[in-house]
Design brief:
globular; about 20% strand; 16 helices; seven-stranded mixed β-sheet; 34 strands
Length: about 700
Amino acid sequence: MISFDSFVMVDWSGGNDRGLAPKKDAIWTCVARAGDTDVPVYHRNRQQAEKWLDDLISAELSANRRAFIAFDFPFGYPVGFAHALTGQDDPLALWDWLAHHISDTPRSNNRFDVAGAINARFSGVGPFWGNGLKRDIAHLPRKGLARCDMPFAERRHVETRAKGSFSCWQLAGAGSVGSQILMGLPVLARLRQRFAGQVSIWPFEALDAPIAFVEAWPGLINPMVRKVQAEGEIRDAAQVRLMAGAFSRLDPAVLHDMLDVKNAEEGWIFGLGYEGALMAAAKNSLQPPPLKNDCFALPPGVDWTPVAQAHAMLRDTLSCVVGAETLRADQALGRVLALPVAAMRSNPPQPNTAVDGYGFAGGSIDDGPQVLPLVEGRSAAGAPYMDIVPQGHAIRVLTGASLPEGVDTVILQEDVTLGDGSIAFHGALRAGVNTRKAGEDVAADTEIFPTGRRIRPADLALLSATGVRDVSVRKRLRVAVISTGDELTEAGSVADPHQIYDANRPMLLAMIKQFGFTPVDMGRAPDDRSALRALMDKAAQKADVILTSGGASAGDEDHVSALLGETGSMSLWRIAIKPGRPLALALWKDTPVFGLPGNPVAAMVCTLIFARPAMGALAGEGWRMPEPLMLPAAFEKTKKPGRREYLRARLRDGQVEVFTSEGSGRISGLSWAEGLVELPDEAAHISPGVLVRYYPYSAFGL
């Protein structure tokens, strides 16, 4: 009997890039294993979704897991279409044909033009219809009624049995599943080719490969989706979450029966006729978990989000949000290049000498003692010899001097006996020795720095040496910082017994400045939803990204997470990290928001691990998480599984020692430390001498 370890539901889209904020009618995916579902993942375009699928399949194969990956668009067309287009009845040949003819970028694709070209192959008008562009396309009518002598059925056989189905020929307007097919099948064809022999396509092939591609429609469980969709949850996200969970909870015998379908060309919808079983399996996700009596236990339906998954979501969805400007190179220190930089001229610009000595034509020197007459004059840096050095003659040259014509080799002055108008030395010498070729370091017009590089002091030397005066750089990322909580007051003021001084805001503003970004101090927000909303609105106008601290958990006064949840903008929270579990990752007025914990230790750790690499992506330098140093531990610790942990640490005598207390209220440990030790998600026992992953603060730019 067929069995799977992982179940994935993909809600596809045929449209263009949907932008940074999670949206409906976009691409959503969700993974479930053993009845537990991950947080649904939003993909802004097909390119990101294809990479995600590629990475997922690679991971499943590496882990020796069998994966059931379902897509919500038809895998085939009505009988006869594949043969008419490819000369074969094989629908997978049609997949390859579409992959060859469809071009796709995040902002544009040629699906309407391809559909028009296909229509032109047939008499009459058809089968495709619906033009979503302003320009007319030959042979592609805007209305379905304009077709005539359409040579194929309007729907596949399975669609005549599926309630609410749409025609696969419709490319625009409500229910334009045709665009999903044209933009989805090429992706599946490429994945099938990349993982040749590892992917089976249902129902066209036997499911004897570790990865199965299956057609499945969330519409089969619409009543359940409407009933259990979380408040503020995007419908597409709810659909993939419920479908993936339902697949993973199906009785294996029922799953086998659902897959026992044979349709040689048109394909089938998995679960059609078994809607009751699917909805029952989806409903099972509502069962409460066992009582844990644990203050860190998550509410029903809320899963931990592993650090790696949160990183992947940020890396795949964040892109540059700041504009560009032109600066003199000597004013661009610390700025991020918006365009690549090419050398204006070669370095060195001409062949020159690397030593003080005597130059001549090396090819004329034989073995044994040599005596060469000297020409009058010399070549020095900035004062070149302008005449030609005759064959069999030598000239005095100084370090950095341009080589005169007729000179390609230099002998050290220490290896020469100077006579009256001549020099003596022993040959032979290798031609070209002690010289530098023109462009040996950098040739003119070659790229010296790529887009996204942050300019360092050493870079200014290379820019100057190659004649570059002006560079195009990104404007500095503006980062707003908001502290929240009625308990906060400013250091130096008179504090009531129930108040504490705001430690987070000064720390975060200083970190942002050292990162090379522009800090925007938005002050403190009281525990008032309306006041926080107003302050967030102002921050979104003044900054490109917002950091809040406090109020990111689920308590009565945790207004940050509540406010973000009300707007439907929160995409991930409750990260499996210690310290810092209540971390909100969201958008406010299309401005990324990092809802940091209120505890200063957790706020700093989450800023370094999440906000710093994300801000790099938003600033145009790309996602960069520093590489850790593997160093021996000078401590002992036993760690439970479930969360990735970060310990305040420093390097002494070649070993890493950690702060005496892991209490996240011990702010002094941040100053004591010079970096962080990262412990893995799984259980671990660290003893002295074991290698651990150490991130010095300097690796983050502090």
